[in-house]
Amino acid sequence: GYPTERVEAFATNQAQVSFVNPEYFGQMYQAYNYKQYYSFNQIIKNWGITAGSGFNYVSMNTQIYPTNNNDFRLAVVHAINYTQLLYESYYYNGTLYGANYVGPINPAFPEYYNPGNLSLYSYNTKLAEYYLNLAGQQENFSVTLPNGTVIGDTSAAPLKPITIYYITPITPLIQTQLEIIQADLSAIGLSAGIQGVTPAVTTSWTTPQATPAFVYLGWGPDWPDPIFQLLMPAVTTTSYLPAWMNLSSVNQIMNVLPFLTNTTEQIQLVKKVYNITYWYAPYV
């Protein structure tokens, strides 16, 4: 059910175990019928990142304008303040309940997680402006920075506002994250709106052309498998993730990677896919 329903079910003892994000912790504890007998830390358990953990993301459709431009995507990933996203989303009552990591494989799989030790994307507005300037020159659009400087193709029309789509109803966590992303993008001259859609609408996103340029979604594995359930859906088109990453170099690797029995060879190929994906930048 929805988070508010899970809060109510736990508070009224209809459910003995429930799962909610940190923004609901206070509400859950205050509504709990037995809080006079148990402290907050006795009823809230932080499981951390597990083998079954998924991830939230903003995808950039690599097959349609303007997110089909690699430098444009690099501009976006360097415009975002990931520390602010983390703390305003997952910090509660003195405890941080989340972590930033270099996906799509999570640290619960240490052998396969980020084998090349790539760093998190830096929050670097100047670097973002550099990439956005390149993208504008390549795609013939201009962008006006907050200080009035025009970058990109200064003789071209301004880039139109972008829209980030999300599934309704919006939760406080998603609202917070999208507001941070909007503010960060505006700092490099990108005007971003948000638009909610029903889950039924997302079922029509079965081709790149039918999928918006920006989509906020989450992905959760059906079973704990770093290759089949975390890496492959994110870097190929097999699961219809809205970034629509479709690179022959990656596809060739992914056609054999899940079936290798040599762990060392697997890790080396994961490292290659990680490096390609990192610089291709299909996700925030």
Distance between the termini: 27 Å
Tell me about the largest β-sheet: 4 strands, mixed
Structural class: alpha/beta
Question: Which stretches are poorly predicted, pLDDT < 50 over at least 5 residues?
Answer: none
Number of helices in the DSSP assignment: 11
Percent in helix: 25-40%
Quote the average pLDDT. Answer: 93
Radius of gyration: 20 Å
Beta-sheet strand percentage? 5-15%
Total of domains: 2
- Write down the CATH class of the largest domain: Alpha Beta
CATH superfamily of the largest domain: Dipeptide-binding Protein, Domain 3
Overall body shape: globular
Describe this entry's structure for a reader:
GO terms for molecular function: peptide transmembrane transporter activity. InterPro entries: SBP_5, SBP_5_dom. It comes from Candidatus Marsarchaeota G2 archaeon OSP_D. This protein has 284 residues and is of the alpha/beta class. The longest helix has 18 residues. The chain folds into 2 domains: 41 residues, no CATH class; 226 residues, Roll (Dipeptide-binding Protein, domain 3), CATH 3.10.105. It has 11 helices and 8 strands.
